[in-house]
User: Fold these one by one.
Assistant:
Number 1:
Amino acid sequence: MHCVSTEQKYINMLPIKIIGTGIYAPGEPIDNQELKTLAGIDFDHQKIEEKLGILKRHIAHLRGIKETTADFATKAAENAIADAGILASEIGLFIVATDTPEYISPATSIVVQGRIQKGETWSSTFDVGASCASFSIALDNAVRILATDDTIRYAVVVGVYNMPAYIRPGDAFGYSIFADGAGAFVIEKSTDIKSKYIAGQLFTDGTQWDYVGVYAGGTKIPVTPEVIAKGEQGLLNIQPLPGHRNVRLWPMVVNKLLEKAESTVDDVNHFIFTQINKSVILKVMHELNQPIEKTSFVMDRYGYTGSGCLPMAFHHAVKEGKIKRGDKIVLMASGAGLAVGSNYFIY
C-alpha cells in the first residue's frame, strides 16, 4: 500500500497563513450582578454561570460608551494589523462578518476600509451576514479569493457583534447572554509550506429562519411607530430553538469537514466552537471523543459575542500558548437561520 505523507497530503491545499490577530471589547467588563443593576433586569445568574459559562461581558451603551459595530470592527482590525507588522495600505481585501451591521447600507466593511486606509485604494470590501456563522463563512471566502487573485497579498477578516444595540429594555434573556466585541485575522498569501488552509464545510437550512433574529428594519418590516408600540423591533425570540441542535450539528459538520480533508478528529490539535454555551461544547467534545484540553472558552470573560467569538477565542488561545505554529485547527460556528460554517487549517 502506498503511504501518503502529511506534506504530500496537504500539498494542494490553499497557501494561506494567519499572520496577525486582534480583538476589541468596549469598556470595563460587567459581571452578572452589576448587569442586573445597569440593565434593570433580573435573571438566574447561577444558571447562566454554571450552564452557559458566562461570568462577564462588555456592553458599550450600558457603560455610556458611544461606540457601535464599525468602531469595534475597526479597532480589532487595527490591532490585528499591528500584530501582523504590515502597513494598512498593503491590505487588498476587507471582509466584515456580522449580522449587526453599522448600517443596512453601505456595508460595514466599506466604513472600516475608509477608516483604516483613509481613502481610495485598489482594495475590495464586502460584508458576510450569516448570523453567528458569519466569521467562519467569511474566512472561507477570504482564503479562496487570496488563493486565486495574484494582486492581493493581504486580507483582513473581522468578526464583530453589537447585538446589545438591538436588545429591548427589560429583555433579561438578551442582556444576560449577548455582548459587544470583535476579533480579526490578517491573512497572507504565503510561501510557508507549514501553514495552509485545508478545507471548509458549510451547511444551511433556511426553513429555520423564524426562530430568533432581528426582523424589523429591512424591506419586509420597516421600523414604524406601530412596530415599536407592539415591541416587535430589535432582537426577537419567535420560537424556542431545539435544545439538542448544536450537540447534533457540530459533530456532524466537523466529521464531514474532516472527511473532506481525509483527516480524523485525532489529527486536530485544537477545536474552537461558537462560544454561546459551555455545557454544549463539553458535550460535543465528549461526542468527538476528544479531551477538553483541545478546546478553548472565552464566554466567561466576554459573554456571547456572536460573529466575534471565534476570532476572539482563537486570539486568546494563540497568545496564551494553547495554539502553536504547525497546529491543525478546526473552527466551528452555527447561528440562526440556520447557517453553519467550519474551517480546517494549519496555523
Note: Residues 196-211+239-302+313-346 form a domain with the Peroxisomal Thiolase; Chain A, domain 1 fold (CATH 3.40.47.10).
Number 2:
Amino acid sequence: MGFLIKWFLRILVLTLLVGAGFSFYLTTLGPDPVEKPERQMSEVWADYPFRSHYVEVNGSTLHYIDEGNAEGQVFLFLHGNPTSSYLWRNILPIVADSGVRAIAVDNIGFGASDRPDIDYTFAEHATYLEGFIEALELKDITLVIHDWGSALGFDYAYRHQENVRAIAFMEAIYQVGSLSDLGQPGQTIFRGFRTPGIGELIVLGFNGFVERLLPFSVVRELTADEMAAYREPFPTFGSRLPTLVWPRQIPFDGSPEDVADRVEDFLSWLPSSSVPKLLLHFEPGALIPPAAAEEIVSTWTNIKGVQLGEGIHFVQEDHPEEIGREIVAWFSELSDVDEPAEQGTEDSELSEESLSE
C-alpha cells in the first residue's frame, strides 16, 4: 500500500508541474493568434453552408452568419463553451425560413472570431456582445440562447430591456449556488477546472472541453467531421484559453464577485419580467433537469415550457429540427397575440373619435 501511495503522489506532483508549465506558458506568451480564414467556413466545418460575415468590435473582428429576411424580426443565437455559431447550423435555417432575420455570432475567442490578448472574463464577453449588437444596429431582438450564451443573453436583456422582444432558452444558467450543491462527479470536475495547473493540463493540454465534455454531453455519437469542426478553432494551448476561463467564471459561492453580482441582477429580474419566454428542456438534462424545468415553468411569468425528449447538454446536436420548429411555432403564437391587441387599440381609438364626433 505504501508503494502505491508513493507512486500516486509522484503522479500528482508530475501533473501539477506539467499544469504549472502550461500556466506559465499562457502567462508569458498569451493566447496564440488565430487568423480569420480567407475561405468560407463551409470549407472548414461540416454541413455549414452559410456565408461568413465579419464586423469590428473593440478593435477585434467577430465572425457571424446572417440568414433569412434582412427586414424581418431579428433572432440572435448565442452559444456557450466550447462551441460557436456552428452549434446552431441545423436550427438557424429552420427559423430563417419562417421569414425572420436569423443571426448567429461567434463569441470573442471562439469559432472564427479573433483571439485578442484579453482575459476572456464574463464582463469582457458582455462588452463584445453589446458592441456587436450596436455595430449591426439590431433592434427588437428575440434571443435564442444556450449555456454561457444564456448568461450573456439574460444579462443583456436585463440591461437593455427596451431592445429585447422575447427569449428562447435551453440548458441555460438559471441559478448559481454553491459548488457543494453539485454531486460528487460535478464537484470533482469543476474543482479540477478551477485548480491552477490541473485546469491548464485538462483544458489546454488535453483540450478537455472539446474532446471529452462535448461528446459526452450529446446523446448520439458525433461524426468525425463534426468533431473536426469543433476542434478546428482550438488547435493550440493558447487558443484554448477562452474555454478554460469560462468554468472559472461560474460564481460558485459568490466568487468571482463581479460575475455573481451580474448574475444575481438578471436572475432577480427575469422570473417576474413580462418578456415572453420559451424554455425547451430535455431528459435528463444537465443544467435544467426535469424537476427544475417544472419549477421554472410553474413559477416564472409569461413562459411556455416544451419537453423535447432525451438530451443532456448540447441538445442542438440531438434535436435540431424539433428545436427549430418549436421556436417558430412559439414566436408565431406571440405574433398572433400581438396583432389582435394592436387592432383592439386602433378600434378603441376609432370608437373614441366616433363618440367625440
Note: Residues 1-42, 340-357 have pLDDT under 50 and may be disordered.
Number 3:
Amino acid sequence: MSKLIITAALTGAEVTREQQPNLPIAPDEIGSAALEVYQAGASIVHVHARTADGSPTQDKEIYREIQSEIARKCPVIFQPSTGGATWHTAEERLQPVELNPEMATLSTGTCNFGRDVFSNPQDFYEQAARMMQQRGVKPEIEVFEAGMIDNALRLLKDGFLQAPLHFNFVLGVPGAMSASVRNLSFLVDQIPPDSTWTVSGIGRHETALAMVAMVMGGHIRVGFEDNIYLYRGQVAQSNAQLVARIVRIAKEFGREVASPDEAREILGLKARVT
C-alpha cells in the first residue's frame, strides 16, 4: 500500500467568515495556511481564490499571487479549482490552468449542488481536459455522481486524458451522491486498477470516510471547504488542525503519510511547463 496523500482544501467557494472565523481569504493568509497544513502533514493544497471581501473569484492574477505565496513558503503541490462558484463562466473557471499548476480539478459531469446546479457539459470538460493536457497539468477528476466516472473514461478513450487517472470522490454534497461506505466502495470498483483516488467526505462524514479510505488504500482530503468543525459544535481553529487529526489516525492504522515529493511520485506528476 502506498503512502497516504493528504490534501487540504483550504477555502472553498461557499464557506464564509461568519461560519468559520478562521477561514483564510487573502493570498498571504492562504499561503500561511498552506505552510501550516504542510507542517501538519498535507502534501497537496486545493484552493478556491477569494476577493478582498471574501467573494469567490477565478481571477488568474489572484491565483497567481496565491501560487507565489504558497511556493515561497512551502513545497506542497498547488491544486487550484476549475469549479469556481456555480455562476462562473467556462472562461472564468479555466483561468487558473493558464498558470501551469502541477494539478487542477476537472469535473466531468453536471449535478445538483444544494439549490444550485453545478454545470459541467461535455464541451466544457473536453475543453478543460485538452487544456490541461497541453500544459502538462495533472487533472484530479472530481466525481459527485457515478456517471462522472463513465465520462472520464470516455475522455481517456478519446485521448483527452492520459492514464493513470486520479479521482476525487466528493460524497455528501446535498443533491449529489450521499456519503456512505457502500457508495465509496462502489465508486472505487468502477475506476481502472492503475488509478489513484482520494475521498472528500462532506461535513460530519469527513473523518469517517477518511478512515475507510485509509484502510482501502485510497487518499484523503480534509479542510474548511468540506468541513468547518473539529467536533460536533466545535469550530476548528485551522485547516492544519483537521490535517493533524488525520495524521494521528494514520499513525494508529500504520499508514505512513506521504511528503509532497512522495505524493508527486505516487501521482506521476510531470516536469513543470514554464
Note: The chain is about 35% helix and 20% strand.
Number 4:
Amino acid sequence: MPLTEPHDDHFSAEEESVVGARAAGEASGTPDPDATPGGESGPEPEPVLPEPVRQRIVALTAAVLPGLPADEVPVPLRRVAKFAPNRRARLGAPAIAAQLTADPLFRQRVTARVLADAGDLGAAVLEGTAPAAADPVEVAALAYLARPRGWRDLIEASGAAVRAEADSAIVAELVREAEQRATRAEHDRAVARVEADKLRDELARVREELGQLREEARQLTRTLRETQARERKATELLATERGRAARAAADADAELRRTRARLAEAEAAAGVARASAKEARSVDDAKLWLLLETIGQAAVGLRRELALDPVDRMPADFVADAFADQSATTQAGAAARARDTDDPARLDQLLALPKAHLVVDGYNVTKRGFGEMSLEQQRKRLISGLGGIAAQTGDEVTVVFDGAERIHGLPPTPRGVRVLFSRKGETADELIRRLVRAEPAGRPVVVVSSDREVADGVRRHGAYPLGADSLLRRLARS
C-alpha cells in the first residue's frame, strides 16, 4: 500500500491542524535517485508497501525526528517533532509519510540518521543485499529510506516474506482452532459418555421405582377392597345402632315426661311447705319481738337505776385524742365472733346493729376500687361515699389513712365521719387495731380491709372484718 495511506487514529484539534499541514506537492528541487535519465519523465510511482513496512518506516522517522536540527525539519513536521514519543508516530504518521514521499532531501537526512543507528544491517542494505537472518520488515524499511540499487526488489521480497508469515500465522491459527475444536469435541464426547452412563443409571433406578410403585399400587388396591368391606360392615352396624338410638330416645322422652310429672308434684309440695314455714316464722317473729321488748324495758330500768347520763364522746374520740397527744391507751378486747366476707348484704346487716362503728382501711379500699386516680381524688371519693353511709345509717364511721403528718387541703369532713392519719412510726393497720381495742366489749365494730393481717388482728379483739369489695359494692349501690 502507499506510504501515505490514511491513519485511523483520532486527533486533537491542535494535532489535526499539524497533520493537515502536510507538504503534499511541495517537494524540494532535489532530484530523486529513481528519476529517469534526461529528466524527460517524472519519478517512478511509489511502490505499494505492506502495512508492517509502512508502520516501521514511520516509526524510524518519528524516532530520529527530534534529533534533526530545526532548520532541517520541514515546516509541517516541526509541531509533530514536539509530540511525546508514544504519540509522535501514531498521530503524525500521515504528515511524516507525506514528507518522506514529497521531500527527498528530508528523506536523505532521515536515512543518514537511521543507517547510522542500523550499523551492519544498514551497510548491507546500501550494498543492495539483505542478510538471511535479518528481519524482512526492517530490511524493506531501510531499503525504502536509503533507496539503493534494486531497492524495489528488496521491498517486494520483504512483502512476499511478510505475506508468507501472515499466511503461516493464518494457517497456524486455523490449525490451533482445529485442534481446539477437536479437543472440545473429544471433551464433549467424554461428557456425552458420562451423561449416557448417568441416564442409563437413572433409567435403571426409574425402572426399579416403577416396579416398587406397581407393587405399592397392588397393595393399595387390596387395602382399598378391605376398607370398602369394612365400610359396608360399619354402615350395617350404624343402621342397627340408629334403630337402637331411636328406641332409646323414645324411652328417654317417656322417662322425661314422667320426671316432669314428679317435678310438678314436688313443686306443689314445696309450695305447701313454704306456706307452713312462713306461718311458723311469723310465730317466731312474734315471740322474738316480745323478748326484745322485754329486754328493752329492762335496759331502760337498769340505765335509770345506774343513773347513766348520755355521753357526747365515743371511744374512738379518745383514741383520736390520744393519737394527737402522741400517747396510746389500750383496753381488753372481746372474744372473736366475726366472719370474713365481701357480701355487701353482710355489711348492711352489721351496720343495722345498734350503735355500730364502721372502721375503714382507707388506701386499701381506694387502691382496690379506683387506683387510677390520684391519692387526693381517692381520699375525696371515699370520704364522700362514707358520708352518705353515715347519713343513711346514723352509725359512727372512722376512716384511717397512712401518713406521717396530717395532710392539708382535705375537703370538709361529712357529718358522722372521722378521718385519721397514722403518725410517724405507726402504720394505718396499727392505728385500726388501737381503735378496735378501745371499743367496749359487746359493741359491734365493723372493720373494712382486704389485708389478711388486719382482718386476723381485729377478729381476735371481737370486731367483724369484711373485705374491701363489700364496701365498694355498697358505695356503688348508693
Note: Residues 13-149 form one domain.
